[in-house]
Design brief:
Elements (H helix, E strand, L loop, with lengths): L5 H12 L4 E2 L2 H6 L13 E3 L4 H14 L3 E4 L14 E4 L4 E6 L10 E4 L4
Parallel strand pairs: 2-4, 3-4
Antiparallel strand pairs: 1-2, 5-6
Helix pairs in contact: 1-3
Length: 118
């Protein structure tokens, strides 16, 4: 991804999932560049999906811009699995429970419960 595409991506993500759920500023990117490992890789940006529709929208835009997507929970990985040059989807804010899945199926679909606290 070229730097001049970043504002367009941020704009499209903000329209798709809401501006407060999209963070591409340097401080947020720095905070998400590490986990419990020794690795430090600055992400393209960070998103906080609230619904499964948000997850789909993030994937669609990432595909269009040819940017990897990286799901993240609490960032407790000891081997660097939660850092990378990608759009981070932080599920720890709103999407915390998996209601169902299809084990053994090649493409598994999951439904998430949204836990939004005021």
């Amino acid at each position: 991804m070229q730097n001049n595409e970043t504002p367009e991506l941020v704009y499209e993500l903000s329209r798709a999932i809401g501006e407060p759920q999209v963070k591409f500023d340097n401080m947020t990117r720095l905070l998400y560049s590490t986990d419990a490992s020794n690795y430090q890789i600055t992400p393209v940006g960070v998103t906080y999906p609230r619904t499964s529709d948000d997850v789909v929208a993030i994937h669609e835009l990432a595909h269009r811009y040819r940017i990897p997507v990286l799901p993240r929970g609490a960032g407790t990985s000891l081997a660097g699995q939660t850092v990378g040059h990608a759009i981070i989807m932080d599920f720890s804010r709103y999407l915390r429970r998996v209601w169902g899945s299809s084990p053994g199926v090649k493409q598994t679909a999951c439904a998430f419960e949204s836990e939004v606290w005021s």
